[in-house]
Specification:
The chain is an all-alpha fold. Helices cover 78% and strands 0% of the residues. Keywords: Membrane, Transmembrane, Transmembrane helix.
């Protein structure tokens, strides 16, 4: 069974307007950061890079928060597992942001992309199932790849390694 089949059994589930606006709207700072990385130089590019690292880290942490919320609702036998998994994105995000700020944005962008993609795979394949709406996996997949593409574009534009 392909990841898509296991991850999104109901590909026709309608996406609520609020989820679409808020979810896809959340890609705008990623797109603006990627554009800024290409259009700016010097201090402005560095400031945009730091802001993009912080936003990417916040989003990765938010993804763990979703699972923390599910863990708070889980049966007693699943609470520890759900809460344990839920802190991984925040830890990864902190390391990615720190690496990016200390060594250059490319390293941080790459670490954020890896974190987003790894968490998506882990969420789909390993994490215990949660009370998820049928449209959620599809939206998450779109947002993960959109954010990752913007971070890759920003990394290609970055002056420092």
């Amino acid at each position: 069974m392909a990841l898509d089949d296991r991850d999104d059994p109901d590909r026709t589930a309608p996406l609520p307007a609020a989820a679409a606006w808020l979810g896809y709207g959340g890609l705008l700072p990623f797109a603006a950061g990627a554009a800024g990385a290409w259009l700016a130089s010097g201090f402005a590019q560095a400031a945009i890079g730091a802001a993009l690292l912080c936003y990417g880290g916040a989003i990765l942490s938010f993804l763990g928060g979703i699972h923390w919320g599910w863990g708070a609702q889980a049966g007693a036998d699943r609470v520890a597992a759900r809460l344990g998994w839920s802190v991984l994105p925040s830890l990864w995000a902190a390391a990615a942001m720190t690496a990016g700020l200390l060594t250059g944005p490319r390293v941080g962008y790459g670490a954020l992309v890896a974190g987003l993609l790894l968490w998506r795979l882990l969420e789909a394949a390993v994490c215990p199932p949660g009370p998820v709406a049928p449209w959620y996996p599809r939206l998450r997949r779109h947002l993960t790849f959109g954010a990752s593409a913007c971070l890759v574009l920003a990394a290609l534009a970055s002056q420092s390694a």
